[in-house]
Amino acid sequence: MAGEAGGEAMRAIEEEVRRRVAVLSWRGLLSLGDRAASYGRRSSLWPMQFGLACCAIEMIATAASRFDLARFGSDIFRGSPRQADLMIISGTVTKKMAPVIVRLYDQMAEPKYVMSMGACANGGGPFKEGYNVVSGIDEFLPVDVYVRGCPPTPQALLHGLMELQKRIDGESFIKAWHLRKRPEVPPPVAGPDLVDLRQLPEIRDGLSRSLPQRLKAPKEAPSLRPPAAVTESATGGAVVTARDQRAHEVLASFGAKPAGGAFLVPAARWTEAAVALRDTQGYDYLANLTAADYEGSIEAVYHLYRTKDAGPALAVKVRADRNDPEVPSVTPVWPGAALQEREVFDMFGMRFRGHPGLKRILTWDGFSGWPLRKDFMEPYYDEPRKPYSTRWREGHWVAAEERNRWRRNVLYPADWDPDSLPPSRPCAPECDTELEDDRRLLVSLGPQHPSTHGVFQMRVLLEGERIVDLEPVFGYLHRSHEKLGERNAWLMNMPYTDRLDYFCSMSNNLAYATAVEKLCGMKVPERAEYIRVMMAELTRILNHFMSVGFLLNELGAMFTPMLYALEEREIILDLFEMASGSRMMCNYMRFSGVSADLPAEFMPLFSRLVTERLPRAIEHMDGFLTRSDLVMDRMRGIGVLTPEKAVAWSASGPVLRASGVKYDVRRAEPYSIYDRFEFEVPTYPNGDAYDRYRIRIAEMWQSLRILEQVLKGFPGPGPVVERNQYSIRPPEGEVYHRCENPKGELGFYLVSDGSANPYRYHVRAPSFVNLTALSEMCRGHLLADAVAVLGSLDVMMGEVDR
Amino acid sequence: MRVLGLETARGLLLTLRHFLRTYVVGARRSLGMRAPGKEGPGSAGIVTVQYPEERRENPERFRVLPVLLYEEETGEVRCTACGICARVCPPQCIWIVQAKGADGKARPKPEEYLVETNVCMNCGMCAEFCPFDAVRMDNRYELAERERRPGDVMRLTDLMVSTRYWARSHPVAWASMEEQRRIRAAAKAVPRGGGLTPPSSGVQTPKSPA
Description:
The complex is a heterodimer of chains A (about 800) and B (about 210). With about 800 residues, chain A is α+β, with helices and mostly antiparallel strands. Chain A has 26 helices and 20 strands. In chain A, the strands form 7 sheets. Chain A has a 5-stranded mixed sheet. In chain A, strands 1-2-3 form a 3-stranded parallel sheet. A 3-stranded antiparallel sheet of chain A has the order 13-14-15. Chain B has about 210 residues and is of the alpha+beta class. In chain B, the strands form 2 sheets. Chain B has a 3-stranded mixed sheet with strand order 4-1-6. In chain B, strands 2-3-5 form a 3-stranded antiparallel sheet. The radius of gyration of chain B is 25 Å and the shape is elongated. At the A-B interface, helix 5, strand 3, helix 6, helix 13 and helix 16 of A face helix 1, helix 2, strand 2 and strand 3 of B.
C-alpha cells in the first residue's frame, strides 16, 4: 500500500516537473520564452504622465506612498509618450481632447496598453449627455482593461493594473504584438462636431440623402418660457443701502430700470455707465459676467463689487436681441471681463463690440451651435428636463448611442459638406498662426504637458527664452457642466459640483447649497453649520497642501514635497470618506443641512488631526520650503501682479490677497456661520509667485484657527438637516451667491422659474477668472517662469473648463 | 544668511528621517501592533498598504455602486418599483420596468431594474432617498474588466444581494435601518383611518419657502 502511494506521489511530482520546469518540445521552449517576456513586460509597465480629469488625482494618489504603484514596477510616470507603454485614460475624454489623445497613443511604441479609468473614460460617465463629451475612449483606442468607479479608488486602480498584468501573462510570441495587425486609427478632426474620419463616407452618404440623425425624435422641445420675476420690474427684495442708492441714481441717469434684483441698462449707454460706476462709485471689481437666454432676448448679467468695502453685489443686466445679440464689451473698463465675455460668446453667440479677441473659448472655432441657448439640443438629447419619463414604469433601456445614427455623441448640421473638412490638422485646432518675425518661436505647452496642471494649453510666443506673448487655450475638459446643470433638478447638481474643482468638493457643495438656500430662504441646523465649516476649512488646508506640492513639482522639486502633501491629503480624505462615503466626490451637503451626521469615531480623529497632526505638517512644509533657496530663487519677483492690476483683472482668493488686497468673501459677505469665528485675512505686499506661495501657508494657519474654534464650540447631538427632500421648487427669481473657496471666489448664478429645475445655472469658477491675468503676468519672463506662475495661480481644469 | 547646499542637506535629512522611520513602523506592524491602512491623524506618517496581500479597511459608508436587497429568509425583493431612485438619479442611469400582473394591473415589483455603471456617478442618492430600504450602496470596488460590454449594464440579477450580505458589511447602518423599520411597522400596526402610512423619507413635497 505504502509503495503504491509513494509511486503515485512520484508520478505527481514528475507531472509537476514536466509541467513547470522541463522543456520537452519546441512549443514548451517557446512558452518558456513567452513567460519570461510577459514577466518582464508586465513588471515594468511605465504609465504615461497623462491625466485628464478627476480620476487623474486618484491616479496620482495611487502613485504616492500609501498605495505605491512602484510595487508593481510601474513607478516611473513618463512625461513622453515615446517612453511609456501604458496609457491610463484617467478621466473624461472631451471632443476637444480626443484628437490629442489619439495622437499621443500613436506616438507610443509597441507593445502598448490602454487602461480606461473611471466611468467617463469607459463610457462617458455622468457627463455622457454633454455636447462635448466622447462616450468612451474605446471609440478610438483599443482598451485592455476597464476600471469601474467614479472615481475608482486607488485600490480599484491597482486591481485594474493587476487585471492588465494577467492579460499580458496570457500573451505569446505566436500571437505577438508585432505580428498583430492593429487597425490604424486616424486622429478625429474637430469640424462642426467631432468627426471620426473612419465614418466619413457614412456621414457623407447620410447627409446627402438627408437621413434623420436622431433615430428617435425627441418627445418634447425645450421651453423658452422666461421666469416672470426676473423680467418684471421689481426690486426682488434686495436691501438697498445708502451706498447702493447712489449707484442706483447713477445708473438711473443712464436710463437704467430696475428689473428683478438687478438694473437693466440700455445697451447703447452701457459703456458710459460702466465707466461711471467704476470711476465715481468705486465699483472696481467685476466678479461675474454671464448671460441668460430668454424668449426674444439674451441678457448679459454683470455682478460688481467694491474691493474697498464689504457687501452684496450690484447686479446689472444688458439686454440684446436674441436673433442678433450684440452688446458693448466692458473689457476696456474691467479687463477681468476678457475671458468671461469670450465664454458668453461661445455659449450664447452674443457678440461683445470692442472686445480685443472675441472667439470661441471652451469649444473650438467651427463648432456648430450655441450650447447654452435653450433651443440647443445635444446629440443625446432626451427631454428638456430631468427626471426623464423614459426611465421609469416602462424603462426599457436604450443606450444613448442607439438613438443616434452615427452611434456616437455627435450631430452634424444638415447643410454641412463633409468634404470641406481638412483631412487632418497638424495639431490641436488652434495653433495655426503665421509668424512674421523669424527670430520668434511659437511653442505650444500642453494640452499634454507634465506641468500644465492637466489638460491646459499655453501657446507661448518666444524671443529666445523670453516670453513675448502667451495665450491660454481652454476647453480640453469642457464637460458641459452648465448645460447639464439646467437639465438637472436642483439637488441633482450637488454631485456634479463635486466634479468642478475635484480637490474641493466639500466647499463646492457648500457654495451650491448656500446659494440655493439663499434663493429659498431655508434655515440650517446649528450642528450642520458647524459640520459644514469644518469640512470647508479642512478642504482649504487640503487644497493648499496640494497646491504647494504641485507648485514645487513644477519648479523641479519633482514629487518629494508632493508626496508629503499627499500624505496629509490621505489623512484628511479618510475623514471625508468616513463622513460622506467617498474620498473625492463627497456629495455631502444637502439643502438645509448635510446628508448624514458624523459617525461616532469621527470627532476623536478630527480632534487629533487639528491639534496634533496638521500643525506639525504645516510647520514642516513651511520650515522646509519657505526659506529654501530653490523656492526663493525661482519665485521671487516672478509674475508680479500689482494690487491695481489684481483688482482690474478680477483675480480672487489667495491670488488677490497675495497682491496686498485684503478681500475675503468670508469677511466681506459672510455666509454660513463664518461671522462667528475669529480669524485674520492674511495679505502679502509683493504680488509675485513667492507671495502667492506664502499666502497659502498663512491661510492654512488661519484655517487651523477656525478649526480649533469649531472643535471648541461643536454643538451636541441634534438634527443635521432641516428637511432633506429630493425635489424642491424655489420661488421664481434669481440669486448670485459666492463663497470663499480655497482657489478664490466660487459664485453660483441661479435663475429659478419656480419649477423643479434651474432655468439658468452658472458657475463663476475662480480658477477660470484667475487665468485672465496669466498672459499679463508672464510677459517678459523666461519660459520656465511661466510654469512657476501657472503653478502659483493654482488652477484646476475641472473648474476652468467646467 | 544663505549657505550654499545647506537647504539641500536639510531636504535630504528629511528624506532620510522618513526612510528610517519606516523601519520602526514596519517593525511595529510585523509585531501586530497596528493594522494596515489604519494610520490616522495620530500616527507620524503613512504606511504603504500592501495591496493585494492586504487591503485597506474602508469605512462603513464607503460607496461604489448601488445594489438591491432581498430578504434573506423569504427571498423577497424589497424594491416596490416606486421609481424614486430613477427620478433622483443625477445622471439618470437607473431604468425600471414595473411588473404587471396577469390582469394587466401594475404590481409593486420591478420587472426589470437596470443600472448603467458607466454613467453612474456613485453619488448614493438612490439609496439615500429609497423609502423602502431596498436600494443600498455596495462597497465592492474591485470591478476591473477586460471588456466594456455587457458588464457595464447591471441587470436585476446582478444587482441583487441578500440582506445578510449587506448587514455584514454595514453593521451600524443596518442596525439603525432595522430600528427605523420596527418603528414604522409599529406605527402601521396602529390603525389610523385605514390609510397607508407614507414612507418617512423622500416624499416629494413641493415646498413654497417663506
